[in-house]
Amino acid sequence: MHWPIDIVVLTFVIFCAIAALSVKDLLATAILFGAYSFLMCLLWTIMGAVDVAFTEASVGAGVSTVFFVAAIFRTSRRTKD
Amino acid sequence: MENYPALIVVAPFITGLLAGLFVWIEKRLSYPIVLTGLFVSALSAIQVLIRVIGSGPIQYKLGGWSPPIGIEYRIDLLNAMVLCLVSGVAFLNLIASYKSALKEIGDRASSYFTVYNLFITGLLGVTITGDLFNLYVLIEITSLTSYAQVAMGDRDRGPLASLNYIFIGVIGASFYLLGVGYLYMYTGSLNMADVAVLIKGSQGSSTVLTAFILCILGIWIKMALFPFHVWLPNAYTYSPVIFSRVVAPLMTKVMVYIMIRLMITVFGYDYIFNTLHLSEAVVWLATIAVLAGGVMALAQKNLKKMLTYIIVSEIGYMVGGAWMGNQLGMTGAILHIFNDALMTFALFLAVGNMVYRIEKVDITDLKGLFGKMPWTMGGFVLAAFSIIGVPPTCGFFSKWYLILGALEKGAYHFAAALIVSSLICAVLFFKVFEICFFESGSHGHEHSSHGPAVIEEAPVSMLVISGLVSLSLIVAGCYSGTIVNTIILPFLK
Amino acid sequence: MSDVLSLIIAKYNYWLYVILMMIGLYGMIAKNNLIKKVVGMNIFQTAIILFYVSIGYKTNASIPIITTADTAHGVVVRAADYINPLTSCLMLTAIVVSVATFGYAMALAVRIYQRYQTLEEDELRMRLSEE
Amino acid sequence: MRVIAFIIVCLTGALLLYGTTEFPDWGDPKSPASLHVSNYYIEKTYEDTHAPNFVTAVVTDYRGFDTMFETAVIFTAGLGCFLLLRDFREKKEHYYQHIPTGVILHLKDEKKSLPVGKEFGYMDKEWVPPDLINKTVCRILIPFIQIYALYVVAHGDYSPGGGFQGGVIFGSSLILLAISYDLKTLVKRIKERLLGIFAALGVLIYAGTGVLCLFMGGNFLDYGKLAPLLPGHSDHIRAYGMLVVEIGVGIAVMAVMTIIYINIVSEGRHDEGL
Fold first, then answer.
1. What are the extents of the domains in chain A?
2. Which one of B31, B454, D48, D69 has the lowest number of neighbouring Cβ atoms within 10 Å?
3. C21 touches chain A (CB under 8 A)
4. Could you tell me the strand order of the sheet in which D94-98 lies?
């Protein structure tokens, strides 16, 4: 029975998603988004989809965050919403 | 040979990649390589069409796995026709737009051809495939390559148009993906024919209903049906000529093809028209789309943008015809896929020629163009007549079928909308003709008093193809009976 | 009470995926900053992936890799012992597509910032109408 | 806008929730999704392909055609970034550091340049390079990351992972090099031309394998027909085919990830970045 872990992680995922969208600093969004991806990867590992989780760990939490930070480095951190 | 179906998609794919490789080794080779690929693809498509007409649908198993385990290609008459259309238009356009691409894109042109070929690969793959998920992947290829190409046009507005296109495109593709997920949940299969068998008799299932709505909604967003059309005008206007010439005729039509494929092959006539009774509502939506596209086109000052709104209106034609729920309407819609692709291609070829010479195509910039570019304008006039629906051209015949279908069903509002939209198009184009013909050009006043204007035509390669395609509108009009009898009616049986 | 609990356990994964998808879609439509929109887009896509992975899950099933012990002695593989590999496979493709779109969207954002010095949509609209 | 967005979102959510009402329970092994096709994959994969990891087998063999286009999607993204951002103009100003003294020199003339070596080092205008500890740690880490990436590629059919994941890890090791030293180090080590060739070559390896199968008389991507060309037992031929294809994917993804990063972080000028 994985469902208690599952439900806790899912709740965290949703918090991270909301936080990533509502924070006013884009660098913070980048980090929260990385956390979101990593929790998502955890969730998929729980569900047994190891390949998908591996991909998400290397892509979502890894390379995407790097692209994100690189883009912020070249644009601006400031945002109005 | 057995492998023609694979060749249709793989030839442009591999040559595109080879061109991408040769960009770094010998730049000049990339254009001939790309051209060869499209040529091979077009030849194979014609071969396949002939075989399908002769001996019925072809099935091709990729990787040697039989469906539903593996992915299959299933080519019937409708597929084969659209395949010929796509590969033919892509090949002709690459020849016609070579010079304009060099002028507009400059030294990046050689890498650009790779993207172009991948785009065509996507369109061909979308058309040929018999697998729902494979369709999604190929839709994404088409989308990603179009985002890349849109951003390469206008240096200022291009990237923004492209980003907006990405947002809406992703929503559309994701809706489609969700729909496939719901279907998979219900059936456990991804093969179109297999899914069709498994969902028979699922009249009341909420899962299938949701899947249906999501798939169709996703495709509508991708196709730019009226309320979802916001991305289209900017994306097509600010893209480079070579791309707008190929995307305007093909992208929306291929999406219409997918909609018809989903309706006929996957969900089935019976489910859509007898269980859901959505026909009325969608025909009304299509009516609004037709009118709204026309009205918005009236308000435009830029010729290219005006034409994009006409495309929005034409999408309404095809959606309305397909959802009419009778054979005449469907015949009209399928015939219009073919005809509209040709018409739009001819129009955009002509506009591309104008852009090549006069750079900006606001309607006021077109003064005295009949004197300056007579051949281009000749092609433009022919294409415009076809869009309006003047009899010997092919635009007339598909409209005729659509109107007959609407009358048979009693959807008088749709028939009226078609006629009104023709009138609007007539007004629009005659406004353009008037400016081009009667008002003298900006530097024309010195010529107008003494002798004819100086002719500054586009290069021959552009002109010849533009002329040929415009003439083919009349040919297609004359043979539309043949197309209906050999391809569309046997397919609908 | 136990009925409600079992219903929740049976369905909450699907409900929460819908909520996640709504968050993403809302971010994509309503947010003003282009990069925030891209983040919303990615959340939307991962929600769909979560949905597919949830379809593929089976209780009391293992990860979809045969252990060497099974293969050595010719033990018959039972389908109920492994989770559905097909959805995992489909979602690998979807993740790749989403990262490709993400990378390209970021490049576009950089390009737009180069040109207009802003990523806020209302400011961009103002700049465009000025020109 | 917010109100419209809220309404659209709520409508979509309601539709999706309505769709889930008839779903079988979460994790139900008897749901139709886990009965029809997926059982074939679980039960027959090992017989057919001799690859213990079902997912890899499905990705690269049964549905290998999808994966080919997935790689093409990645390739397009890389090419798109290159076409969009790449800027071949040289920057006018250069900064150098005089290493023995630590003095920073600012050269405004674009034509002049200083010999970079023991005495002078590059400086980025916007980013101060990380210190010695970072550099040393990353220098030690990077080879191991790369070996791990190669392991992930090569063991795609035995353990989780495969070409895509391995490629991403390899690409991120290169990105780590660029971050811990500076962008110029990376660009000097791996030329842009090489990356471009790798990106196209990787996808070509995949597609070429498919075409090879055509020439051997099979259908497109039918690895079984490659038996005469590859050594080893003919049972394992499909697993070998998968390996070849995975290597192609790995190469392409590695190159594309690096291309995207370099172009975004330097705005296409390939001179300085994070």
1. 3-74
2. B454
3. no
4. D103-107, D94-98, D120-123
> What predicted TM-score, i.e. pTM, was given to this entire model?
0.94
Q: Is D160 within 8 Å of A74 when comparing Cβ atoms?
A: no
- The percentage of residues in chain B with a pLDDT greater than 90, rounded to a whole number, is 48
Q: Which of C89, C101, C125 to mutate to test the interface with D (most CBs of D within 10 A)?
A: C89
Q: Which is nearest to B383 in space by CA: B464, B318, B316, B474? A: B474
Residues of B in contact with D204 (CB under 8 A): 14, 17-18, 21
Instruction: Write down the pLDDT at residue D23.
Output: 83
| CA dist., res. B94 & res. B34, Å (int) | 9
pLDDT cut 90: percent of chain C above it: 45
DSSP-assigned letter for residue A63 = I
Chains touching C (at least 3 CB pairs under 8 A) are A, B, D
Which stretches within B129-157 are classed as H helix?
Answer: 132-151
Phi, psi of D121 (to 5 degrees): -130, 155
Give the pLDDT confidence score for residue C40 in this predicted structure: 93
Chain C closest-CA separation from residue B148 CA (Å): 8
B42-56, C57-71, D208-222: the lowest-pLDDT one: C57-71
The mean pLDDT of B169-187, rounded to a whole number, is: 92
Can you give the residue ranges of every domain in chain C?
A: 2-60+82-130
Nearest by CB to B207, which of D19, D38, D214?
D19
| Binary contact (C14, D159; C-beta < 8 A) | no
Domain of residue B478 covers 278-493
Q: What residues of C are in contact with residue D164 (Cβ under 8 Å)?
A: 92, 96
Taking an 8 Å cut-off on Cβ atoms, the answer to whether C80 and D29 are in contact is yes
**Residue range A32-45: average pLDDT?**
92
Read out DSSP for B22-50?
HTTT-GGGHHHHHHHHHHHHHHHHHHHHH
The alpha carbon of residue A54 is apart from the nearest alpha carbon of chain D, in Å, by 7
Separation of alpha carbons D68 and B83, rounded Å: 21
Q: Which of A58-62, B178-182, B200-204, D223-227 has the highest mean pLDDT?
A: B178-182
Q: Are strands B72-75 and B58-61 parallel, antiparallel or unpaired?
A: antiparallel
| Total Cβ atoms within 10 A of residue B26 | 10
Q: Name the domain count of chain B.
A: 1
Nearest to C112 among B147, B159, B170 (CB): B159
CB spacing of C16 vs A17 below 8 angstroms: no
Instruction: Select the residue of B140, B147, B184 nearest C55 (Cβ to Cβ).
Output: B184
Rounded average pLDDT over C74-84:
77
A36 vs C20: CB contact, 8 Å cut-off? no
Give dist(CA B115, CA B112) in Å, integer.
Answer: 5
For the cut 90, the answer to whether the pLDDT of residue B203 exceeds it is no
Domain C2-60+82-130: CATH class, spelled out: mainly alpha
Query: A–C: how many Cβ contacts below 8 A?
Result: 132
| Residue B468, in any domain of the structure | yes
The C-alpha atoms of residue D71 and residue D210 are separated, in whole angstroms, by 14
Under 8 Å CB pairs connecting chains A and D tally to 51
pLDDT tens, position by position, D172-215 = 999 999 888 888 888 888 999 999 999 999 999 999 999 998 88
Q: How far from the centroid of its chain's Cα atoms is residue D252's Cα?
A: 6
| pLDDT tens, residue by residue, D89-137 | 776 677 777 777 777 777 777 666 677 777 777 666 665 656 788 889 9
Q: Considering only CA atoms, which of B161, B92, B133, B123 is closest in space to residue B469?
A: B92
Taking an 8 Å cut-off on Cβ atoms, the answer to whether B63 and D221 are in contact is yes
Chains A and B touch (3+ CB pairs under 8 A): no
